[in-house]
Amino acid sequence: MTSTNLFSKISTSKKIDTKTDDYPVHDAMYWKELEDKRVKCVLCPRECQVADLERGYCGVRENKGGKYYTLVHSKVCALHIDAIEAKPLFHFLPGTKGVSLATVGCNMECKFCQNWQISQFRPEQVNYNYLTPETIIKKAKYRQCSHIAYTYTEPVIFYEYMFEIAEKAKQDGIANVVVSNGYINEKPLRELCRYIDAIKIDLKAFNDEFYRNTCSGKLKPVLNTLVTVKELGIWLEIVMLIIPTLNDKSQEIRDMCRWIKNNLGPNVPVHFTRYYPTYKIKNIPPTPLHTLEIARQIAMEEGINFSYVGNAPGHKGENTYCPNCKEIMIKRTGFQVLQNFVENRKCQSCSYIMPGTWKTDISKSIYQHKHRPWKGPWSLPY
């Protein structure tokens, strides 16, 4: 399935040139008043203390006279229809398509970010389309999409917009998918998860030094997020981008897999994906395929039932295998599902119950009938 850019097809949006826009704002959530018109943001672990007329680290939340506002509500800089496998999510409605969207901004600065042209820029620097939550949902219905994905940059920083869309989409039977770095405080995470069906977390590495030096963040809050998501029963998958010499040590990967199994369970899928030079890290060559294969092998040795190789189209590590009989359950290449042998949530060969969120009938799209509302996905336990 190829990605479709929706900007050229939307007639109900307002294309805005940031050079002349007066930047309409929207009330922010999760902040506290301080003295002297200062505010404290409590949305993410940075907990920025922001003076009047200043912004937080993310650059998209501003203090105006002692009140905190988001500058990116409804201001979409990227909008596409693409496959759920592109997130990647391999155990959530495989083979379906969704509306994927983003605003500018991020609460980390990963030196290897592939979307740095929008994640590391400010609202004034990127043109956008003004799309209300209702417009997004209308587009998802018209395109017969199973889900809306909040992705590309960091959804935490456009929390209010995501929250409003997700709440309305849930009422209309459209699933909500979050692709995140996991850098969010527990209270806003729990509130958001009332409307979320699946989350993919980028676990950048399993050491705090990497997070501090390469991502301007910390590891512990991300681990806390993973535990909370698992506790809430939201379908969860993890991606680790393997960068040669920086986070590819076998023992670190082994320690990470042990932590995942002990704290999240053996059925949380783990994707090891290939890095390509970009942004501020251009002096390191792409990840050797053999390195990804070693990481996947380590995960299997440590009892992770579903480990994958990513950014390597055609590799056998893209497929889903039954942990019991080892037969192929889902055959993939890139973002395309070639064959899906999961039927009634079971392996056709041995009847092993496959963890995940699946279509009730693999032969039909859940949006095959445009006017028949989908009642929402359901998940099997980890």
TrEMBL record:
PROSITE patterns assigned: RADICAL_SAM (PS51918)
GO molecular function annotations of the record: 4 iron, 4 sulfur cluster binding; lyase activity; metal ion binding
Source organism phylogeny: Bacteria, Pseudomonadati, Planctomycetota, Candidatus Brocadiia, Candidatus Brocadiales
Keywords for this protein: 4Fe-4S, Iron, Iron-sulfur, Lyase, Metal-binding, Pyruvate, S-adenosyl-L-methionine
Transmembrane feature ranges: none
Domain Radical SAM core positions: 91-307
Name the record gives this protein: Pyruvate-formate lyase-activating enzyme
Necessary cofactors: [4Fe-4S] cluster
Keyword Acyltransferase annotated: no
